[in-house]
Structures are given as C-alpha cells and as structure tokens.
# Entry
Amino acid sequence: MAGEKRFRTSLFGFNKSDVNTYIEKMLKEFDDKLKEKEDEIAALKNQNKEIRIKYEDLARKADQINEDRAKIADVLIKAQEKGQLMIEDARLQAIEEKKKLESMVEQEKEKLVDIKKELKILKSEVVNTLKKYEGQLGDIIEVVEAEEEAAAAAE
# Structure
C-alpha cells in the first residue's frame, strides 16, 4: 500500500481508530482517484464525440468533393467528346466546301475556255465581216472614182 503504515497496538490487536482512519483515508484517496479517472473518461468521451463529429463532417465533405470531382470529370469528358465531334464536323464541312469550290473553279475554267472559243469565233467573224465591208467599200470607192472620172471627162 502507500508506504508501510504502522498501527499502534492495543489489547486485542491493532488500534481500531488508527485502522479506521487509515481505511477512511485510503477510501477518500481511492474515491478521489476514481472521480479523477471518471472525469478523465468523461473528458475523453467528449473529445471522442467531438472527433467523431468532425470525422463525420469531413467524411461528408470528402464524399461531396468526390461527387463533385466525378461530375466535373464527366462534364470534361463530355465536353472533350463534343469538341472532338465539332472538330470532325468542321473538318468534314471544310472538305465538302473545298470539293464544291474545286468544282466551281473547274466549271469557271470550262466557261472561260468556252468564252475564249466564242471570242475567237467572234473575232474571226468580225475580221471576215470587216474584210467583206472593206471589199465592198473598195468596190464602192472604185465605182465613185470611175463616176468622178467619167464626170470629169464629160466636162
């Protein structure tokens, strides 16, 4: 026990008041230590309860963060897929537009060739017409000159 306690002796053994005082002292110390331990247990229970509440709160927040991350990941994946589809659509449209433009350029080249042919034909016709009129003018000039000579000779 707490050190060696020596009791006074009496007629039939130890002195009852010394033993009773010692026992009361021991009970009081035990009760004090018991109360101290109970207080410590209560404080630890409260601390445990607070920690559990904080843990549950953090667990809820972690779950929410994980849900948000999953949603964000889904949104990013969908956005990436949509972006790829848009790029592919734009690429296909560009190819179609290029084909249309190439076709239009080819048609315009053909029209230009046709116009050049028509211009050559028209030029040839104009030259032939001019030669025809030149010949006719030459004939008219000869007739007029002949008439002028005949009129001059008649005078």
Q: What stands out?
A: The first strand starts at residue 9 and ends at 10. The chain has one domain: 9-154. The two ends are 183 Å apart (CA to CA). The longest helix spans residues 16-154.
